[in-house]
UniProtKB/TrEMBL annotation:
Domain HTH lysR-type: 1-60
Top-level division of the source organism's lineage: Bacteria
A UniProt-annotated Pfam family: HTH_1
Organism: [Roseibacterium] beibuensis
Descriptive protein name: LysR family transcriptional regulator
Keyword Transcription: yes
Length: 300
């Protein structure tokens, strides 16, 4: 027995419309095509589906019992195909993103909010980690993509810049450098205990690109491995630090951020992906949306 979807859809349309002509219009096909489909279905099933007269077209007893099951099958199939299409065009699905903590708390909330409004059926999972951890999650396939600092030293990932995040001097609100607002030069940091990052972190290589800076910045008093620790030390007024602006929460009351100039210094944050590996439609939609919403932060 060979039964096709065309035959089943023709049967349901004729049963609902009680007319081959109206069924053909519903199916956007010709009446002869509908008639042929019904005849083939009757032959395949070995039973008569409709009682025909000059004025009335009615279901036989067998086809009346057959109709509800066919309708359920077609409804389930149509729903499945709709879900499949939604996943294919990215309007439905899921996307997992690994991000730096500063990105998760400062950068992405507005992006996630606007993306969720545009794609309400797409689920989003955010997992925060340091730059190396973000890359590892991308490489392992645990997440679809990441947002982190430059990863030139990590093989197997691709970096596409999204944001330029300026460095600034950060100090406790009672510190002498925090008593004024506005930009500050690197030379003005001279003589203060300086807290910086260990050599194996993503920020230390950026700071090490500077040459004409005070000795206390070149040889810091304390070295740590993450921004959270630096901020904790700054809140006890143990010293000062140079941090990317996005790492300092704007609602933070205990510390003050002043943009560093002469020379200005930036951390580049970008999209981390695996080269040669296509993103799912949902993930690609998230990337496209993120690039649009974050573009102003690159152009500053």
């Amino acid at each position: 027995m060979k039964i096709t979807l065309v035959q089943l859809r023709a049967f349901v349309a004729v049963a609902r419309e009680r007319s081959f002509t109206r069924a053909a219009k519903v199916l956007d096909t010709s009446q002869p095509s509908v008639t042929t489909a019904i005849k083939q279905l009757e032959t395949g099933l070995g039973l008569k589906l409709f009682d025909r007269s000059t004025k009335v077209l009615s279901l036989t007893k067998a086809s009346a019992a057959f109709l509800p099951g066919v309708e359920r099958i077609l409804e389930d199939l149509d729903a499945t195909l709709a879900d499949f299409q939604a996943a294919a065009d990215g309007t439905q699905g899921s996307v997992a993103v690994a991000v730096l903590p500063s990105v998760a708390t400062v950068v992405l909330p507005d992006t996630v909010k606007s993306f969720s409004a545009a794609f309400p059926k797409t689920r989003i999972s955010l997992r925060d980690d340091n730059s190396s951890g973000v890359c590892e999650r991308v490489l392992s396939g645990e997440v679809d993509l990441g947002v982190a600092g430059r990863t030139d030293h990590i093989a197997g990932v691709q970096f596409d810049p999204l944001i330029r995040d300026p460095f600034g001097a950060v100090a406790h609100k009672s510190h002498p450098l925090a008593q004024e607002q506005g930009p500050i030069s690197w030379d003005e940091l001279d003589g203060y205990p300086f807290i910086s990052f260990a050599a194996d972190t993503g920020l230390r290589p950026i700071l090490d690109t500077l040459t004409d800076i005070p000795e206390n910045v070149k040889s810091p008093w304390i070295e740590v491995s993450n921004i959270a620790t630096v901020l904790s030390l700054l809140k006890t007024n143990l010293g000062i630090a140079a941090l990317p602006k996005m790492s300092v929460n704007p609602i933070e009351n205990d510390v003050v951020f002043r943009t560093l100039l002469n020379p200005p210094l930036f951390r580049e944050l970008g999209l981390i992906t695996r080269p040669g590996r296509s993103l799912s439609p949902a993930a690609q939609n998230f990337v496209d949306h993120m690039k649009v919403t974050l573009r102003p932060k690159w152009e500053r």
